[in-house]
Design goal:
The structure is a single chain. The chain is of the alpha+beta class. The protein is built from twelve helices and 15 strands. The protein folds into four domains: 125 residues, N Utilization Substance Protein A, Chain:P, domain 4 (2-Layer Sandwich), CATH 3.30.1480.10; 64 residues, Nucleic acid-binding proteins (OB fold (Dihydrolipoamide Acetyltransferase, E2P), Beta Barrel), CATH 2.40.50.140; 70 residues, K homology (KH) domain (GMP Synthetase, Chain A, domain 3, 2-Layer Sandwich); 75 residues, K homology (KH) domain (GMP Synthetase, Chain A, domain 3, 2-Layer Sandwich). A five-stranded antiparallel β-sheet has the order 7-6-5-8-9. Strands 1, 2, 3 and 4 form a four-stranded mixed β-sheet that branches.
Length: 367
């Protein structure tokens, strides 16, 4: 069994990259643990592994005493000298385990250790591969669709992982064998159970990486994505700037006749993408972020709060359906945005002034 074990470990090192020394350490620890378990944890044991001779031997250890109190841990000097005449009182007597019992124990234990070692090695290699792909797009093939919860099992080429329903673009459906692009959001390192990786098609990072892969000016650093926010399946807002005054960052992302952005929109199942020009001036930035609405005025109230004035016919456009446009603009810029028409703002200011005037005159004011 010993020679076969060493040959198996050497093959494992070649194929899986697990060192023989590491596996032998695991075998030694497992043998000691297994033997102690067989003896209810009372026995002491030593394992001797010789790589050159391809041998593994196991010795039970007992303390040499004048009078035995614990037979599992102690042995008399007289009995110890039957094993080796050189033993003396106070030393440790080592008795090699009988081959028959040892082979049974070691074969079972070594097999378990090797199987576990293979699993750990494969998991470790998969983790390393996924770590290199974290926050990157990978192409996966749909392997199975769960009809109950609509989770999709995809084959990434490294392993099979579930793309959860919550991480899918609302309304999209997949067929077995279909190739899809997914974004690696997280790689799990600690747990030995559960998925190795989290995949998403709803993360803003997916859109960002699609543009980085599609647009040469972004790849070479001429155009920079400064901020991006998204409500998957509906709308994305992205702020870009150019490091070259001769390059229009928005035009570069859209492409001739919209060819560049169209391929990205198709990948996102028709999701709308608003590309705006980033500005260090918060007034300009906020005005652009509320596109496609036309903004008349932006008043900065505090470091992260502002009021925006629009014409009455632009109000619903600025706010968007169910507040989406204003919500995305706020996330994109980091500002709390209060949108009003000029008339509403004037009425509000008039009401405030009336309150102040009445208070100055000492009149009772109903609130």
């Amino acid at each position: 069994m010993n020679s076969e074990l060493f040959e198996a470990l050497e093959l494992l090192e070649k194929e899986k990259g697990i060192s023989v020394d590491y596996m032998l350490e695991r075998v030694e620890a497992a043998l000691i643990s297994a033997y102690k378990r067989d003896r209810n944890g009372l026995a002491n044991v030593r394992v001797d592994i010789n790589k050159d001779k391809k041998s593994i031997r196991m010795f039970e250890q007992k303390n040499i005493v004048e009078e035995v109190v614990d037979e599992e841990q102690e042995i008399t000097l007289e009995e110890a000298r039957k094993v080796n005449k050189r033993y003396s009182l106070g030393g440790v007597c080592e008795t090699e385990l009988k081959p028959k019992n040892f082979r049974r124990l070691s074969a079972q234990t070594a097999k378990q250790v090797i199987i576990q070692g293979i699993r750990e090695a494969e998991r470790s290699m998969m983790i390393k591969e996924y770590e290199s792909k974290k926050e990157e797009i990978i192409t996966a093939i749909v392997d199975k669709v769960d009809p109950e919860n609509e989770d999709v099992l995809v084959d990434t080429g490294t392993s099979k992982v579930y793309l959860k329903k919550i991480d899918q673009i609302p309304g999209e459906h997949f067929g077995v064998g279909e190739r899809i692009k997914v974004f690696v959001t997280e790689v799990m390192k600690e747990t030995m159970r559960g998925p190795l990786v989290s995949l998403s098609r709803t993360a803003p990072g997916l859109v960002k990486r699609l543009f980085e892969l599609e647009i040469p000016e972004i790849q070479d650093g001429t155009v920079v994505i400064m901020s991006i926010t998204r409500e998957a399946g509906s709308r994305t807002k992205m702020a870009v700037m150019s490091r070259d005054e001769n390059v229009d960052p928005i035009g570069a992302c859209i492409g001739n006749r919209g060819m560049r952005i169209q391929s990205i929109t198709n990948e996102l199942r028709g999701e709308k993408i608003d590309i705006i020009k980033y500005s260090e001036d918060p007034v300009e930035y906020i005005s652009a972020a509320l596109s496609p609405a036309t903004v008349k005025e932006v008043v900065i109230d505090s470091e992260k709060s502002c009021r925006v004035v629009v014409d009455a016919d632009q109000l619903s456009l600025a706010i968007g359906k169910e507040g989406q446009n204003a919500r995305l603009a706020a996330r994109l810029t980091g500002f709390k945005i209060d949108i009003k028409t000029r008339e509403a703002l004037e009425n509000e200011e008039a009401a405030k002034q009336a309150f102040i005037d009445a208070a100055d005159d000492g009149e009772s004011v109903e609130i």
